[in-house]
Amino acid sequence: MLILGIESATQQVGCAIGGHEGVIASFEATRGRRHAETLAPAIQFCCRTADIGLDEISVVAVDIGPGLFTGMRVGLATAKGIAHALRVPMIGIPSLDLLAFPLRHGSRIIATVIDARRGEVFYAFYRQVPGGVQRLSLPALGSPEDVLADIYALGDDVICVGDGALRYRHTLKEVRSIEFADPGLAHPSPRPLVQLAHAKALREEWVNPWELEPLYLRKPDAEINWSSRVRSA
Q1: Distance CA 5, CA 185 (A)
Q2: Is 0.85 topped by the overall pTM?
Q3: Confidence at 226, pLDDT banded by 50, 70, 90
Q4: Does 125 lie in the same domain as 161?
Q5: Which of 81, 113, 151, 189 is most deeply buried (CB count within 10 A of its CB)?
Q6: Is the confidence at residue 32, as pLDDT, over 90?
C-alpha cells in the first residue's frame, strides 16, 4: 500500500510517498510560499525519486489544518483532485498532530503552536504514549497569552513547537519550565503525515474525497475584512 501525503497548511509546502517500509521520497520548501506553483512539480519529483507511477498510489493523505487559508485550499484541492482521478480514498490529519508527532520520544507535554496571523495562534497540547502522541485538548484559536495561561494551568514541563511558538517566543518563555523544539520542526511535515496516515490506512480509517472537511477554526481573512467594512459602513 503506497500513500501520497500532501502538506500545505502553513508557509511550508511539501509532499511525501511511503508505505509499510516508511517514507521513500519527500519534498519540502518553505521560502516563497508559492504553494500552487510548487505542489504539482513536487509530486512529480517524488514519484520519479521513488520510481513509481501516480497510478500506484492507494491512499491520498492531506493536512486538513488548522492553518493559513490559501495554503490549505491548495493542498485540499490538489489532494481531492488526485484522489478523484485515481478513485482512491483519503485520510485527513490535523496540522497540530503533525507538529507533535516528531516529539513523541520525549517526556514533556507538547504544546503545538501555529502562527494564525492577526496576533493569534492555533494550538493544542499533547502527551507521549506508546507508539505516538495523544491530544490533551481540542485544537483552539487564541492569543499567545491564552497559550501561556494554559501552560501555567497544566503545571507540567512543556516543550513548544511550531512557527507560532518561535514568533511569540518572548511571551511564552516567561514560563521557566518551558523548552522550545528545534526550529527545523517549526512546520508540519509530509513525512509524519505519511507515517500517521499509513497506520490509519491499515485500520481502514479513511473517507471518500467528498467527505473530507477542512479544520479552519477561523473565517478566511477576505471574509473577515468584508464583514469589517460592512460594519464600518
Answers
A1: 17
A2: yes
A3: very low
A4: yes
A5: 113
A6: no
Handedness of CA 61, 66, 71, 77 (dihedral sign): positive
Do 156 and 143 share a structural domain?
Answer: yes
Residue 218's domain is classified under what CATH number? Answer: 3.30.420.40
Task: State the pLDDT at residue 228.
Answer: 46
Longest distance between any two alpha carbons in the chain, whole Å: 59
**What is the extent of the structural domain holding 167?**
96-185
What string of DSSP letters covers 49-66? HHT--GGG--EEEEE--S
CA distance 210 to 107: 38
Confidence of residue 227 (pLDDT cuts 50, 70, 90): very low
Residue 197 near residue 206, CB atoms below 8 Å: no
